[in-house]
Amino acid sequence: xxxxxxxxxxxxxxxxxxxxxxxxxxxxxxxxxxxxxxxxxxxxxxxxxxxxxxxxxxxxxxxxxxxxxxxxxxxxxxxxxxxxxxxxxxxxxxxxxxxxxxxxxxxxxxxxxxxxxxxxxxxxxxxxxxxxxxxxxxxxxxxxxxxxxxxxxxxxxxxxxxxxxxxxxxxxxxxxxxxxxxxxxxxxxxxxxxxxxxxxxxxxxxxxxxxxxxxxxxxxxxxxxxxxxxxxxxxxxxxxxxxxxxxxxxxxxxxxxxxxxxxxxxxxxxxxxxxxxxxxxxxxxxxxxxxxxxxxxxxxxxxxxxxxxxxxxxxxxxxxxxxxxxxxxxxxxxxxxxxxxxxxxxxxxxxxxxxxxxxxxxxxxxxxxxxxxxxxxxxxxxxxxxxxxxxxxxxxxxxxxxxxxxxxxxxxxxxxxxxxxxxxxxxxxxxxxxxxxxxxxxxxxxxxxxxxxxxxxxxxxxxx
Length: 464
Ligand code: ARG
Hints:
Elements (H helix, E strand, L loop, with lengths): L13 H7 L2 H4 L3 H17 L5 H20 L11 H13 L12 H37 L4 E6 L2 E7 H26 L1 E2 L15 H7 L4 E2 L3 H6 L2 H27 L7 E2 L18 H24 L14 H24 L1 E2 L1 H9 L5 H10 L4 H18 L8 H7 L7 H4 L2 H6 L9 H16 L8
Parallel strand pairs: 3-4
Antiparallel strand pairs: 1-2, 5-6
Helix pairs in contact: 3-4, 3-6, 3-8, 4-5, 6-7, 6-12, 6-19, 7-10, 10-11, 10-12, 11-12, 14-15
The structure holds arginine.
């Protein structure tokens, strides 16, 4: 069941067939393969390269194969080498000699380049739509938490108070960039390689603009050698996916920390947590941990693709068949992670009182206390030293800056007056931070408005 038996006198060794075949995984894009063949054959007939009669019987045959594969009536026959041979073989079985004309002016090299691009293009758009859902979920949670005070951390040590909306806003920005990267990737890759032949084009008068347009591409690719050997777009997409995983794994790591008995900032919904087989009290953040864990797998696939492509001479080499399994797995993994995470975030409960209580401890207002001194004429470096000494005092008295009696303040510096308490309240600490991008309510309102407009104006995905 080969496309290339003519110059061979012996059967292929079974182990060679098993090693060489790709049908077991490239069957994943049978729809794309058939779609590409339909466009190709219509073009062949339009150009007078095959007869209208042959064209219509090929078109009918391809549709019947598509239907039977969709319904499960037709199984992939492992004797075929790949999806391209399988479709052509079944077509010829079904419609006879006309089926043998399908591959006129085409090589499996431009065919697989096309299939992979069609497949990837759909997946880029699907990933994009999952990211849009995630952005909407984050934004909704931000809207509900503009006034939810929580501690901000550096070195995982409490640093300064901010709000949950502000903290989530950091992830909103990351995923917004991810969205832009996916769109960039799409706009660079959406050119059609079909018609490039094995590597040097063909001698038939193919209309490459026609097939490109039929298949929803911006136009045909401009160099036939590059067309059949380019997998840049896959590497680019997997880089984008890897960055999405960087962001997801950071977010999930925070949720894991926030979910610990010590923090108790969040409660993951029962429907998104799991238990222990031995410890009855346990409710584990397995989904968050798995997303964090799957990150390594996606980076691995990116490395695998980069390494496969490194040093490959032009044009097509069989090494490139190794692009598929890593790409498919990376794509499926990341889509699953975004979907699961969006569901988890939609149902998670933020323990806002605990967050506020935590912000109040740990001297998150120490910078503001120093700023109070600066606003009253003390040099910042001196103010830093004074507040440091007061923090030490608080530790000694087991209290916090907002509860420390005024006389203790005044013992260290006479500059302190009763208004120090107002100056270091959590509300003041947050609401005074109003440079754009900061957690202050006014600044936040402006940023929320910009982001709302962004979300409201995301264009629909192109229909291919
Ligand atoms: N299965 C092959 C791949 O994935 C299809 C292209 C085969 N081309 C060839 N010249 N052997 O790359």
